[in-house]
Amino acid sequence: MNHLDDLIRQYAAPELEEAGFTRAGRSFSRISERGDAAFLEFADFPLGPMVVLFDVSLALTPRAHWEWLRRQTAPQYLGPPESSSPFFRWWCPPPDRFAQDPEDEPQTWMFGPLTDEREFGAALALALRSTAVPQLLHLLDRDNLLEESRSSRIARMKGLGSPLERQIMAMVDDAPVEAVEAALRQRPEGEGHRDFAPWVRARLAARA
Question: What's the predicted TM-score (pTM) here?
Fold first, then answer.
């Protein structure tokens, strides 16, 4: 175990577990009743024994997106969504005083030999409590997911070719069938994956 694991155990895990996330090593996840998954993960960058560098990545994988990516997999082998194939990916930034370089994107957290651990831990806990967790829970609501797919105000989109396809993916399980069909008709001919429209229409038919 290194210092990052100590920081996670003392300052991050209590915040995340209080918010309903389940821990697996340096990864925390929460699955909604609809099967959408929110993830928060810590990744460190070795820089000697006296300095801890890490980032805090956030991801959201809707169930529909996961099933699209695994469409060749039999349903009984799908399992829950994973963070390796997110619909959204973004990061929780540190306050400037705990950033390796405040101008970097994404910003990396840095704990050095002169850093006060309690002050650093309190800042990490606050960032999770006030920013990361509310953002993840916000996007687990499917109305907010659709709005984010249109605006990208919080997160970076991943995994699909065009903004329109991303919106369709966010709509496919909840929006009126007519609205999804109208969005499909707006796709330029030949755009995106050839299986996308047939897959969407099959999923719409399964809703009936």
Answer: 0.91
